[in-house]
Design goal:
This protein is α/β, with parallel strands linked by helices and 327 residues long. The chain has two domains: 31-162, 3-Layer(aba) Sandwich (Rossmann fold); 177-309, Glucose-6-phosphate isomerase like protein, domain 1 (Rossmann fold). The chain is 47% helix and 15% strand. It has helices spanning 11-16, 18-26, 46-58, 94-106, 117-126, 143-156, 164-174, 178-190, 204-218, 257-272, 287-309, 317-326, and strands at residues 39-44, 66-69, 82-87, 109-114, 130-132, 194-200, 223-227, 245-251, 276-281. α4 (94-106) links the parallel β3 and β4 (109-114). The protein is globular and about 60 Å long. The two termini are 37 Å apart.
Length: 327
């Protein structure tokens, strides 16, 4: 473990154990299924919502529409044939609890995932299926526990085809130390920089995950955007650079040819403005393994950068203070 005196709650071991977490998570939703579903709405916030973003991205080419809801209410299109996946690791996220109650009023199909809290209490009162995940994790560090049960429920329900082959490839690649090593190397480059992460729209949730891990683990500002949206607005920000940015472009060989060309051109344009730019090659044998291996590298980069700054990656005191003030 790195700098045990800084990493007081051993975030290193939690990150290092992601492959095992994913394997264990596959078993949590055994036997849980739903019928007569027209769409899926994952409702959650923060680290619990990112699992929904990954699910929606992964299943984009399926016939089943998957939406992510970060709100106190549900979208107007929610009906009794909507499967609402209530995703709250703590079980006490107030926006998610509110949306859960809305789903009950509508009469949606509902499956909840979390470690307990109010969500579990409501599930017991209403006889709603609840997938219990292990306690003791920060929500952002329980990504495997939150993502894979969602996928399993959809497989069990025959709403999507079996994803076993993709899941096996993903768990296999996460066991490789290369992502930890790459994260360590990347952290060296990010010291005293403001990271900006870009990806294709396909990898939007991965770029978002990099940003939020830097926010929460390192306690710094970081930003993200996608190609080619950033070409229509954000690119102009490099005319008048006001911070010590470091741009990371997450690049996949299967990105659209025009997107890859945009990435290459923008890399040169941004470098001409004196900003550091680095391409990060996405690795994996399928889209699921590519998403998880790349976000895993970002997890490690955020951890090692926190160590560089002497920051304990686990506490999120401002978030907790905000919750207390909200009452």
């Amino acid at each position: 473990m790195e700098k045990a005196g800084v990493d007081k709650e051993n975030m290193y071991s939690v990150i290092d154990d992601l492959a095992n977490q994913c394997m264990a998570a596959r078993r949590l939703a055994s036997g849980i299924k739903v019928t007569d579903v027209s769409n899926v709405i994952v409702t959650g916030m923060g680290g619990s919502a990112i699992a929904g973003d990954l699910l929606a991205a992964y299943l984009k080419d399926e016939k089943l529409p998957v939406f992510v809801n970060r709100d106190y209410n549900l979208p107007k299109f929610a009906t009794k044939r909507s499967l609402v996946i209530v995703s709250s690791y703590s079980g006490n996220t107030e926006e998610t609890v509110s949306a859960f109650r809305k789903a009950l009023r509508i009469g949606c199909r509902i499956v909840a995932i979390g470690s307990g809290g109010k969500v579990k209490e409501i599930c017991e009162e209403t006889k709603t299926p609840h997938i219990k995940v292990p306690r003791g994790y920060e929500p952002r560090a329980a990504l495997g526990f939150m993502f894979f049960p969602m996928l399993t429920v959809l497989e069990n329900s025959k709403l999507i085809s079996s994803k076993k082959a993709d899941v096996d490839k993903t768990i296999s690649i996460l066991k490789k130390p290369v992502f930890r090593n790459m994260g360590r190397e990347l952290a060296e480059k990010l010291v005293d920089k403001t990271p900006i992460i870009y990806s294709s729209e396909r990898f939007n949730p991965v770029a978002m995950r990099w940003k939020t891990q830097l926010n929460e683990n390192v306690k710094i500002h970081a930003f993200y955007n996608t190609f080619s949206e950033m070409n229509h607005n954000e690119i102009m920000g490099y005319v008048n650079v006001k911070s010590n940015y470091f741009v990371l472009i997450l690049k996949d060989e299967e990105d659209h040819p025009r997107i890859k060309k945009r990435m290459t051109i923008c890399k040169e344009l941004i470098k001409e403005k004196g900003v550091h730019v680095m391409e990060v090659t996405i690795k994996g044998d399928c889209f699921l393994s590519k998403m998880f291996s790349t976000l895993y590298m970002g997890d490690w980069a955020s951890y090692f950068l926190a160590m560089k700054y002497g920051i304990d990656p686990t506490p999120v005191t401002i978030i907790e203070d905000l919750k207390k003030k909200m009452g």
